[in-house]
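Ticket #4471: structure output looks truncated?

Reporter: J.K.
Steps to reproduce: submitted the chain below (395 residues) through the standard prediction queue, then opened the result file.
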Amino acid sequence: MSTTGKFLLAAVLLVSVFGALSTGLATIVTYAPFGVSKSQRAVYEKKVSLIKRDETLRKNAQSMGLPQAVLPSTRYDFGLVDPHTTASHAFEIRNHGSGPLTVDVAETTCKCTVGSAKKGIIAPGETTSVTLTWNTGKKSEHYEQIARVVTNDPTREVIDLTVSGVVKTELFVPEKCVCPSGDTGEIIESTFCVYSQLHKEITVVNADSDLVGFDWEAAPISLDSQPSLAEHQPTSISQIKVRCLAQKPGSFRDELNLQLLVDGKTEVIEKSIQISGRVHAPISFHSPLLHSRDGLELGTLGNDRDHVFHMIVRQHFEGKRDLRVLDVSPEGLGVTIAPTNRLGDYRLTIRVPEGMPSTIFNLDQKKGFVQVGDPDNKEFSNWFPVIGAVVSNDE
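Returned output as attached by the reporter:
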């Protein structure tokens, strides 16, 4: 046999072998559905089987004499609706099959929704409607209710019809008013809006709070000035501006009580919201080495030389005060303060001197600190922790 013939024979044999292997593999290799666990495999395969069955039934509904329920839509949104009103919508159901279709409203999700079918039996090619009537009540919130329709269509034995909508808000008042942070002695001011989707006029009769220096003012505004409220479709908006005096450093919180009238009526509507904010500490410290919770981390320092650290001290109050270093721990630390060229800023220098005795000040009972403030008024002071250790190189 020639070389070419031998080559062709070998190629044919290889193709035959690979073909046999492929056939054998095809008979023993199966692929699990991607993303389906073994415990869910049976449920998955049952659903796939039902889908395939329903597809077959839908395709052969005419020849098999089966009814077939077809709906243009199973959902309807009423949008904004008035409180204490009744809204209705009719869902169209058509029988596209060749057998009579039965339709029955079995249940609804709440008593405020009532469903009724115009005809209980629909001949092939005919159409009926199922009407859902919805009582909005008075709550100003989004509603979604469902009526369950039962049919003899083997592919759609249960059809859920859904109506939804939003009941108009008589008077919307925010739950919270958060003021911007301020400095001690400063007037803090914040603004918020109240609006209605029903009334044409909102009048703020009074606003009161126990916050020191509390004051307020209110005025109606146009929708153009508050485009963020456009999606709520308000019919009237009133803007309320509140002020208070920033006193002690830290967070503050109080109740803000409002009295309002709508459309010139004499019945006062009372609403309460939470007003809160934060007052800066009168003095703040700034350094890359300063942690907001742990303080100034010096690390472990040898006492064979000086170690010097700097930071900025900034006052947050009006008026000029003589800031000084009020207290230091451990006592061996040398701490000085001096004003900078920027008004209200000071340069704080911390010096760990050469020869300082070995000491550890990162334990709870021996934690170091530096306190800075006005020696004539302790309210204008602040402090920060100093954590570290000084060791002798001989140890």
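Triage note (M.O.): checked the attachment and the full token line is present. Residues 7-15 have pLDDT under 50 and may be disordered.
Status: closed, working as intended.
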